Structures are given as structure tokens and as C-alpha cells.
Amino acid sequence: MDTNYLISDLEDVAKEVLANLKTKTIILKGSMGTGKTTLIKSLVKQLGSNDEVSSPTFSIVNEYHLANGKIYHFDLYRLNDIEEAYNFGIEDYLYSGHWNIIEWPELIEDLLDDYDKIELNINKDNSRNLRLKA
């Protein structure tokens, strides 16, 4: 999946992303300001959670509730090494069977067996480009 979109199109984009996923683990790559957390807000809503979504920059992980499960939202930007991920129990989250949505996943990619990757970029007209690699 490869699409350009405006913020006003985000709900439809989130629905399309969810329809094209192969796993419950999503990693998001993109520079600061590309809209990773904004996209995650829409994905969480489309999955059926009414929880308030915010960036877990300082808490590392936020948990959102679904009728039949959970969504774990990670922001690993502040991690310095893989040991920090092990120390907060990253493996327990990753192998929980729940949704895992991970911003700044570079340090832990080797721990992931199967995942979908979203790459976000800003276009010159300020729209976003989303590329999903399932």
C-alpha cells in the first residue's frame, strides 16, 4: 500500500491500513513531525478504543483498552540500547498476543519475528506519504 493523504483523510487512511495488515504488530518509521502519533490516534480509534491517545515519549509505553484486548503503543525514541527495552519487559508486550504499535523501533527490530512496517514522509505540499510493507 502506498498513498498520499491530508490530515482530513486520516480516518479513511487508517481504515485502509487496518484492512491491509498481516499482523498485530506495526512499526512506524518517519522523521519527527511526519504524523506517526496522529496516525496512531486514528488507528486506535478504528480498532475500537475510546481511550485518550498520547505519545508515550516519557512513559515508553501506553496501554489502550479494547472490548476484547489491548493495544500497546510504544515510543522508543529515548531508549539508548536494547538492554533498556529488556529492563521494562518489551518481550512480554511483544509476545502478549495484543496489538503492538511501535514508534522509533530501530533498537528492537531484531526481536520481532513478524510485523507490518509503515513509513511516513512529508511531501512538499505538506501532505503525507504512507507506505505500508506488510
Features:
134 residues, alpha/beta, seven-stranded mixed sheet, 4 helices, 25% helix
Sheet with the most strands: spatial strand order: 1-7-6-2-5-4-3
Strand percentage, roughly? 25-35%
Number of strands: 7
Proportion of helical residues? 25-40%
SS field, number of helical segments = 4
| Strand and helix order | EHEHEEHHEEE
Uncertain spans, ≥5 residues at pLDDT below 50? none
Mean pLDDT comes to 95
Determine Rg (CA atoms, Å). 14 Å
Please tell me what the overall shape is. Answer: globular
Biggest β-sheet, characterized?
7 strands, mixed
Straight-line N-to-C gap: 8 Å
Q: Could you describe the 3D structure shown?
A:
By secondary structure, this protein is an alpha/beta fold. The chain is built from four helices and seven strands. The chain has helices at residues 10-20, 36-47, 82-87, 90-94, and strands spanning 2-5, 25-29, 61-66, 69-75, 99-103, 116-122, 128-133. It has a seven-stranded mixed sheet with strand order 1-7-6-2-5-4-3, covered by helices on one side. A hairpin with a 2-residue loop joins β3 (61-66) and β4. The termini are close together.
